[in-house]
Fold this sequence. Notes:
Blueprint: H1 10-29, E1 34-37, E2 45-50, H2 62-74, E3 80-83, H3 86-92, H4 97-108, E4 114-118, E5 125-128, E6 142-152, E7 161-170, H5 173-189, H6 191-197, E8 201-202, E9 214-215, H7 217-236, E10 240-241, E11 247-249, H8 250-256, H9 258-261, E12 270-272, E13 275-279, H10 284-292, E14 303-312, E15 328-338, H11 340-361, E16 366-372, H12 385-402, E17 406-410, E18 419-425, E19 431-440, H13 443-447, E20 450-452, E21 458-460, E22 462-467, H14 472-482, E23 496-500, H15 506-518, E24 523-526, H16 532-541, E25 546-550, H17 552-557, E26 559-564, E27 569-574, H18 575-588
Helix pairs in contact: 1-2, 6-14, 11-12
Keywords: Aminoacyl-tRNA synthetase, ATP-binding, Cytoplasm, Ligase, Metal-binding, Nucleotide-binding, Protein biosynthesis, RNA-binding, tRNA-binding, Zinc
Subunit structure: Homodimer.
Subcellular location: Cytoplasm
Amino acid sequence: MEQHKSDNNELLKIRHSCEHILMEAMEKLYPGIIKASGPATEDGFYFDFELPERLRVSEADFPVIEQEMQHIIDKNHSFQRKEMSLAEARHLFENNVYKQEWLDEIEKKNSIPSVYWTGTHDNAYYDLCAGPHVEHTREIKAFKLLSIAGAYWRGNSNNKMLVRLYGTAFKTQKELKHYLFNREEAKKRDHRKLGKELGLFTFSPDLVGQGLPLWLPKGTILRDELEGWARRVEAEHGYQRVVTPIIGKEALYKCSGHLAYFKEDMYAPITIDDERYYLRPMNCPHHHQIYKSDKRSYRDLPFRIAEYGNAFRYEASGALSGLMRTRGFCQNDAHIYCRVDQAEEEFANVLRLYLYYFKILGIQDYYLRLSKPDLSQGDKYINNPEQWEKALIIVRKAMQQVDFPFVEVDGEAAFYGPKVDVQIKSAIGTEYTISTNQLDFLTSERFDLNYVGEDGELHPVYVIHRAPLGSHERMIAYLIEHFAGAFPVWLSPTQAMIVSVSDKQVEYCTNIYKLLLQHGIRVELNLASETMSYKIRSAVIQKIPYIVIIGDHEATSQTVSIRDRKGAQKSNLSVDTFIQEMCKVIKSKSLELWD
């Protein structure tokens, strides 16, 4: 078993020890299993093992397994550690092929094997392990088995499929209950679950391919709303729209450096007329050709071009996860070509744009991460320390202008320059990069991107790569979980649902429906013969912001009654008042429903 790098973390010690208790319980309950490995993790622990033929374990068995684990814990055995020779360790685990493989690695590293055991010498449970552990089993106060799955040994699909049990442990029962509550909430908010229930997107892995989402009509509305908003904001900030192809010749990606530094993330080439083409992994090389299409003067800079461009990157099938990690995506991309004296202000303005977008979307739990190079990795970064330092100074000054906290990390920069990633934490507790802003000092040399200065001479440009709203795929996945599918009115695929009490109101309902459409309100009409409670429940399940209820009274008085998705109700509203309030809340991009 591998040693976790955070040895001093008490919680990890508890989880590591609990995983040992799980293995001991499994060996007692299921004689003949072969234990493989199982580390402590950030959220808990897991244990991989091989089951004898005809023996099955399921979540229905968890109560019995947990009972046996508690029985072992109650004995309050101590965790003992012993170092031994390779020969001794190989003899101890002579019937376990998985431990023998671990011992092969220990031998290659010229390390000394260690074993931890609990119990008495004549009835001890032991395992190959580097530790650390708690001192006694009763220090494990709160644990829970969570799920079961299949897992290839060492994550390699060519190896044997093992059984994996997941669990977690905490210092107290209160912390465990809090975690389990949040876990259930996370399941409710999972964008894959809600995306299916709300009819936003789907996949066709067998025919279209893995990691290639298909956007359904309602999901496409989300994309269109975000993209339309970004287009308007970018136009106000001096960006010009461009459109470029999703494919490029091999020479383009050799020139950009992607084939040298990014090839493993690209799709295999396509041969057309004896020439090799690649699906683009990024939009920037195409944008550079647009910059080069005309001579540029210092007066023309900064030159800002933007495109919601489709890109494709190879991701291992095991890494794909709904919309969060896909093989095809559409990015809120733009490139700013500027003079070096403009770079700091342009970079800062992009960061301000990020903060504006996030405020409107109600995104608060995030931080900025300045990613720097590790120049010892010569195959990953351009080895030009002077240029790197110059670019880092520009980026730091820009971030200080915005006055937003940030952290610095080594070895995460783009190959062509430093970048600022926005690290966000979703409503279900997952942290990931939602968008990025990069300063590129290399591209001008590779693509000969210049401008004519006041002195009449050619000077290289700096390029800022930016995508404040990231990709449609990842941003919408985040927003689904952030809002639990109950989007703000302006983003909601359906903003209002009109429901009739009976067939008598069909004509009036239809007239209101047409009127709302004329005012740009996305509305659906439900004239089905179901009960009113069923119609309302259906609209609430679909998380539609407003339900317009029309009965005899409303039809006679030419009014509407409104019920919002939270249950608040208003009666005897004029149709004009309802439309005005709807248009107002949509235009303001309010996060709240109107009172």
